[in-house]
Amino acid sequence: MFCSVDGARSLRHFKTRCGATNQPFIAFSTTVPNKRSLLRSGVSGATPAISFRLSPRRIVPAPTCFFLQSLILLGVTGLLAVTTPCAHAHGDDQLLIDALTEELAKAPEADLFIRRGELFRHHQEWAKAAADFAAAARLEPKLAVVDFFRARLLLESGDAAQARTFIDRYVAGTPEEAEGWFLRGDVLGALGQHDDGAVDYAKGLERTPRPRPEHYLRRAKFLAAAPKPDPARVLAAIDEGIERVGPVISLVEYALTLELDRRNFAGALQRIEVAMKHAPRREAWLVRKGDVLVKGGRVDEAIASYRAALSAIDELPPRYRETVPVEKLERDARNALSRLSSK
Prior knowledge:
Strand content: under 5%
Radius of gyration: 24 Å
Strand order of the largest sheet: 1-2
Number of strands: 2
Number of domains: 3
Largest sheet: 2 strands, antiparallel
Helix content: 55-70%
Distance between the termini: 57 Å
Order of helices and strands: HHEEHHHHHHHHHHHHHHHH
């Protein structure tokens, strides 16, 4: 069954149902009657900045800016993409590949080659994906976004050096598009040029109106992997992300790791306090706080934090308390208290 927006209360609900909250996706209605309808499917309400018109073969973006139109094909922004990372996606993707192949036999078009190439890339059929992207480039040599797809394919298939050629050309032609800078940062990182990769991520962040936590995390990790890493600079990159997108768990956890690596227990505890102020639930952070207090030799405060965590867990409704993560959290807190009591 295809992932469908039919009956979904919102786009986020739809993506959650498909198990792809943070991944590229494409939506196809379960009620479409034939292969031609598959090619015409779109996501209603997914891209408010883009209006759509129905062509005889597919949904086409009405003219806006170049990259917004390209995003109908891109699998990098969460707006709309051409892969289906649902539980049984491979069989569903094969149906779509068959439909695209049938349409291409009638009238080869660059965007259909790109759609099929993205499906092949999603299933790591590198040679088939490369052939489709090459065909798209031959049909529309001025379609710059093909260079983006080819670069990403080469990076994922392990040829970062060749990917560099395509992403350099894409960035040179569309320097204001953030996604190109992010991808080039990844390519440079794969080539071991971590400082340069961090610079490209910074340029991407300057250009995107909607940065994601992983952008800041990737930039920080590139800075940390540089030949002469500066921990203060890495933390500053994370703090920039927290300031812009909020105390997202992935950013706070990485900052905590950095603080603990340099034994800055006070800094780590301060970050946990800030995170708890924004968190809807405190039990996980209270256990984390106890762990940091133990590392800092503040045993009595650690015991109090673990006990506070257990109290917070006891106050949870059964539907939250009787879950695997919370049960593990409770075990961790009790085990920590047992270890501290035996000393």
